[in-house]
Amino acid sequence: xxxxxxxxxxxxxxxxxxIDQLPLGITTAPLHPIDPPKIGDFWPSARLAETPAGVAYVxxxxxxxxxxxxxxxxxxxxSDPGARDxxxxxxxxxxxxxxxxxxxxxxxxxxxxxxxxxxDDDPQGVEAPPQSxxxxxxxxxxxxxxxxxxxxxxxxxxSWHPQQGQPSGPDYRLHWSDRVAPGITRVWPLxxxxxxxxxxxxSLLASWLLMLMLAAVAILIAILIFSxxxxxxxxxxxxxxxxxxxxxxxxxxxxxxxxxxxxxxxTDTESGQGPPSPxxx
Length: 281
Prior knowledge:
By secondary structure, this protein is of the alpha+beta class. Helix content is 22%, strand content 14%. The chain has a domain at 10-192. It has helices at residues 75-78, 81-92, 143-157, 201-227, 266-270; strands at residues 20-22, 26-28, 43-51, 54-60, 68-73, 99-103, 134-138. The longest helix has 27 residues, at 201-227. The N and C termini lie far apart (141 Å).
């Protein structure tokens, strides 16, 4: 049984040329444009090793913390339940002081389930794909650590297993060997626009100051708009017509009755017209 060599294609050879030299002879390679800026709570800074099964990074959880070796499965290996189980099994066989954190699909069970980092509280789309499995290991910055990362990825890929039986057909090849891009991760909170690394304290301070300045400008604009608005005089009062139900100067009380035709009107008496003539029956 043979598998493709974990060596990247010639077209990518220039992109992974060593750019940094860690202590004790560890050679790193720059990040590719397809590498995620953040994996779980860790920020990758360089590549240590890569195979069709995944990539090993040098990563940091926060400013001033010690580096860790983070292994992320590729998209092809992440889609294979058998590859995910082999990856989880290799993690469960490690020393308890070696495993710092783990995350991704099918990594919340087993011996180190308490070190699983749950990220379900991060905002995500309705049809967001599951995250690829990853693990953060203690990194002593020795070549032996890099060899351990290659061994874990080789166990996932089955490339170091001896051939079984007599070959009598085409070479065996995993169905996901061509999908070697780094696995799917979720980035939250988002990094600074145009940056692929952590936002420092200076960047956070600048963002807060920018937000405060925009809020102050918005308040100032609102004050200027309302201060220059034309004055509106109150409406004129409604005149009282004296026809209210409670009686007024020109109204009659409800209990008063108008004089009838058979009664003497005080107005007629005062005008000198005499008593009224008797009415005819």
